[in-house]
């Protein structure tokens, strides 16, 4: 998760614009990544009630929050693709 955050932060620092060779292909990759992250967050949320201690629940909640933040960063990168990548 930390490496995903570092990558997203570096990508956002490229003069506010992302340049991709194949915007449509990149758009699909970003959408697929979000779908997989959403599935992972749902799995963690379903496991949350089974964790007996508060520390473990707090760790899972933090992991879910990190996934959601990563999804927001992917969404922001997706929006920088412009209309040609959004189709």
Write the layout of secondary structure elements.
Blueprint: H1 2-12, H2 23-47, H3 54-79, H4 83-86
Helix pairs in contact: 1-3, 2-3
List keywords for this structure.
single chain; mainly alpha; elongated
What is the compact description of this entry?
By secondary structure, this protein is mainly alpha-helical. It has four helices and no strands.
Q: How widely separated are the two ends?
A: 28 Å
User: What is the arithmetic mean of pLDDT?
Assistant: 80
Strand content: under 5%
Helix-strand string: HHHH
Shape, per Cα inertia axes: elongated
Q: Gyration radius, to the nearest Å?
A: 15 Å
The beta-strand count equals 0
Number of helices: 4
How would a textbook summarize the main sheet? none
Structural class: mainly alpha
Helix content: over 70%
Pick out the low-confidence regions: 13-17
């Amino acid at each position: 998760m930390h490496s995903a955050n570092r990558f997203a932060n570096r990508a956002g620092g490229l003069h506010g614009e992302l340049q991709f060779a194949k915007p449509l292909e990149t758009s699909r990759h970003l959408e697929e990544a979000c779908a997989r992250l959403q599935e992972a967050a749902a799995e963690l949320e379903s496991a949350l009630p089974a964790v007996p201690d508060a520390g473990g629940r707090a760790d899972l909640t933090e992991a879910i929050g990190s996934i959601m933040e990563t999804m927001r960063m992917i969404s922001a990168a997706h929006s920088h693709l412009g209309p040609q990548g959004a189709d």
